[in-house]
Write a structure and sequence with these properties.
19 strands; FAD/NAD(P)-binding domain; 325 residues; 6-stranded mixed sheet; 9 helices; elongated
């Protein structure tokens, strides 16, 4: 049994914790809750999945789906979906959603694992003593006696945190992310929009999804819009009010909405989804220190889906088990 520190309580960190739970696991995250970009936002009586939107059934044959079934975390629904709204391409699409929002999935996995955890704890330094044992430091605390340190946060942050312990000079090309501005909108009156979700609503809006199909208790008509990555990159520091008014105007003009908006809010995800994965560049599934004690993993390893993030942790856990034999 090893003492293992996991930095990052997103899907990859939780996958590692799930697959290595026979060890002494301690998980750290700078946020107040598990899930990473799998985030559900609440505003009074409104609810929005403003991070990851759903789990595709195309990724159903994997461990994550087994975990969702085992703990009864999700439900399969079928919706009217625009595969390309601008070209009027529509279909019926089956998706998996959390039973009470998408963050219900990582939160429930975390709760079932009963992990030792430190939230609101950003790790800023890792050190190794002469016996090869690691200590982690936040701004206020030191955490000692770890045999392995598994870093599951965005690549550039992982690199900065581990640069004194891992040789990055051999990595010629690096994985990259697309940023995305997300806009949440709520209307007191139903807008009677038949399409519940879809792609390419506008050249500057790459995705839209109704939230009432996820949260039965919603009384307002709630929607989430993803601005395109190209628009986001070109307007990375745009004034939020300007962004929100622009997105609202497009949405209301597209669907001829006359109802008065009751709530609007935007959020910028700098590391929204993997653009170029590390596996695509290197054919490898993690980055490790020479002594095989520190490992870097995350959604940037295999791809942008929730399944990719989970599978990255599962693959790394198998290797760590071999090292521990």
């Amino acid at each position: 049994m090893k003492n293992i520190a996991i930095i990052g309580a997103g899907m990859t960190g939780l996958s590692l914790a799930y697959n290595l739970q026979e060890n002494n696991i301690t998980i750290f995250d700078k946020s107040w809750r598990p899930g990473g970009r799998v985030s559900t936002r609440k505003n009074e009586n409104d609810l929005f999945d403003h991070g990851a939107h759903y789990l595709s059934t195309n990724h159903s044959v994997n461990q994550l789906n087994e975990v969702i079934i085992r703990y009864n975390l999700g439900q399969l629904i079928e919706i009217d979906f625009a595969t390309d709204y601008l070209k009027n391409k529509k279909t019926r699409k089956k998706i998996i959603i959390g039973r009470n929002g998408m963050n219900f999935i990582p939160k429930s996995i975390f709760d079932n694992l009963k992990l030792r955890s430190y939230f609101n704890s950003k790790i800023i330094k890792i050190s190794k003593n002469s016996n090869g044992i690691f200590s982690l430091f936040s701004e206020k605390e030191e955490f000692k006696n770890f045999d392995f340190v598994l870093i599951c946060i965005p690549y550039l942050q992982s690199k900065e945190l581990s640069k004194d312990l891992i040789d990055f000079t051999k990595i010629v090309s690096e994985p990259s992310y697309d940023p995305i501005h997300t806009v949440m909108l709520s209307y007191k009156d139903t807008n009677n929009i038949n399409i519940r979700a879809g792609l390419n609503l506008h050249e500057d809006i790459s995705f839209f999804m109704n939230q009432n199909i996820k949260f039965n208790e919603l009384t307002n008509d709630c929607w989430v819009l993803n601005m395109s990555s190209e628009y986001t990159k070109n307007n990375i520091d745009i004034d939020k009010t300007t962004l929100e008014k622009y997105a609202q105007s497009i949405f209301e003009k597209t669907f001829d909405i006359k109802n008065k908006i009751s709530f609007i809010k935007s959020h910028r995800w700098l590391y929204a989804q993997t653009k170029v994965s590390y596996n695509t560049i290197s054919k490898k599934n993690w980055i490790n220190s020479k002594d095989n004690k520190i490992f870097l993993s995350g959604d940037w390893v295999l791809g942008k889906s929730l399944s990719d993030a989970w599978n990255a942790g599962e693959k790394l856990s198998h290797y760590i088990k071999i090292l521990s034999v």
